[in-house]
């Protein structure tokens, strides 16, 4: 078995992965900030937007992922998905110019625009690009691949926080969305001429048709046949519920509660997170040597400590330390789960199982997390006037609740660890001899 990923494929992994993560970062951070600044200072809109887009993203991954498995191709879905992703990113920015009254119609338009963009983002990135990276890798190099996937969101966050902050401060939101949407469109066109599907990828078609194949992943026997994988999915869900309690609001918190500029808040997050990425190299060795549980335990502990520091402090140096701790937790758990999950995917259902991953990694966390945030902000947020309009700003309590919630990740880690150990070190059954019976 070839243990290396070609230089060409590594280049594509980084180019497509980074452009996709930058676009997701824009949705997860700047869409929320945009709505708060241009539409209404109401956290309920953000909760609806995040929740609906998570459901749509999951649906898209299931539908298109199954389709790509049946087609035995990822390339056309990646290219089309990225191009349309970019177009609808620009379309979302255009909602700034819609009438704000009646208010309910404005909410519906914003939520719908985000949902459409998320559908095509998941088509290109989750349903096609992610399975493609699984197709071209194996168990001996997925620790490094997981490290790349863990570093990309951090680098995208740095870009989104620093570079995006500069663009927004200088040109405002709509030119920023036009620039970033155009960039993703170009990446989709680039894919058409450069990416090749894995040579061993075969079309997998159930005799009973698409919908039977689509539904097969939801059967109990599928869960029982992949118990370790489903417990790892639960780990993913629990951790990222806690993560999504604070992350969609972190820029709003720094900007409005601590009165930082977008650029200062971005620099603070960027420095802390890029430092955390350095730990992906030693973590990759532990993951590839079969020790993902050890890395996850370290990730949970550092995440908890980092969020507590952010909760207790308003000093720049201590906030930087807190962001570093939370960033280490995020980076290491994302790296570990990426490799662990890819190693457990059924070979003929990789695109389809990306949909299951979306349920546990995106849909549940992005619905439950912001819903928890909404109530925390309503009862513990600060009412203040922002740009002449009264609004509710999240307080530091958000980080305390997030820290406590992520500790529950240890619960599903227990059965996942037991199943992992039994898979890595199966107990051999020796033949029974007559003398063993003491007859």
Automatic annotation (TrEMBL):
A Pfam entry, by short name: MFS_1
Mode of membrane association: Multi-pass membrane protein
Main location: membrane
UniProt KW keywords: Cell membrane, Membrane, Transmembrane, Transmembrane helix, Transport
Cellular location(s): Cell membrane
Domain Major facilitator superfamily (MFS) profile residue range list: 1-418
InterPro entries: MFS, MFS_dom, MFS_trans_sf, MFS_Transporters
Keyword Chaperone carried by entry: no
TM segment ranges: 45-65, 77-97, 103-125, 145-167, 173-195, 229-254, 260-281, 293-312, 318-338, 359-377, 397-414
Name of this chain's protein: MFS transporter
Taxonomic lineage of the native organism: Bacteria, Bacillati, Bacillota, Bacilli, Bacillales
């Amino acid at each position: 078995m070839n243990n290396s990923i070609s230089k060409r494929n590594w280049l594509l992994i980084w180019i497509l992965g980074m452009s996709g993560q930058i676009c997701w970062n824009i949705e997860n951070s700047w869409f929320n900030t945009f709505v708060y600044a241009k539409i209404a200072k109401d956290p309920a809109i953000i909760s609806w937007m995040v929740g609906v887009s998570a459901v749509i993203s999951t649906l898209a991954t299931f539908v298109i992922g199954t389709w790509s498995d049946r087609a035995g191709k990822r390339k056309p879905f990646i290219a089309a998905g990225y191009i349309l992703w970019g177009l609808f990113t620009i379309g979302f920015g255009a909602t700034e110019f819609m009438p704000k009254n009646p208010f309910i119609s404005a909410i519906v338009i914003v939520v719908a625009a985000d949902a459409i963009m998320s559908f095509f983002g998941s088509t290109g990135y989750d349903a096609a690009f992610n399975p493609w990276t699984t197709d071209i890798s194996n168990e001996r190099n997925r620790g490094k691949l997981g490290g790349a996937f863990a570093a990309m969101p951090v680098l995208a966050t740095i870009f989104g926080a620093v570079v995006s902050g500069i663009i927004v401060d200088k040109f405002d939101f709509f030119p920023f969305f036009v620039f970033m949407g155009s960039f993703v469109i170009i990446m989709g066109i680039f894919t058409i001429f450069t990416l090749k599907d894995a040579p061993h990828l075969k079309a997998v078609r159930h005799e009973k048709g698409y919908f039977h194949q689509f539904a097969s992943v939801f059967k109990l026997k599928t869960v029982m046949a992949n118990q370790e994988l489903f417990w790892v999915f639960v780990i993913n869900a629990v951790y990222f519920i806690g993560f999504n309690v604070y992350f969609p609001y972190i820029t709003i918190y720094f900007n409005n509660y601590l009165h930082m500029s977008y650029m200062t808040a971005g620099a603070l997050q960027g420095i802390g997170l890029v430092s955390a990425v350095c730990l992906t190299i030693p973590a990759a060795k532990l993951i590839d040597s079969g020790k993902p549980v050890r890395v996850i335990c370290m990730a949970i502990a550092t995440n908890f400590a980092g969020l507590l520091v952010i909760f207790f402090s308003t000093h720049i140096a201590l906030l930087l330390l807190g962001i570093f701790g939370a960033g280490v937790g995020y980076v290491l758990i994302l790296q570990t789960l990426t490799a662990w999950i890819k190693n457990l995917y059924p070979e003929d259902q990789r695109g389809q199982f990306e949909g299951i991953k979306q349920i546990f990694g995106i849909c549940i966390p992005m619905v439950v997390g912001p819903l928890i945030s909404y109530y925390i902000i309503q009862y513990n947020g600060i009412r203040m006037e922002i740009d002449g309009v009264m609004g509710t700003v999240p307080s530091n309590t958000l980080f305390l609740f997030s820290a406590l919630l992520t500790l529950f990740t240890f619960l599903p880690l227990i059965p996942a660890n037991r199943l992992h150990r039994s898979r890595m070190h199966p107990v051999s059954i020796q033949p029974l001899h007559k003398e063993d019976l003491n007859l």
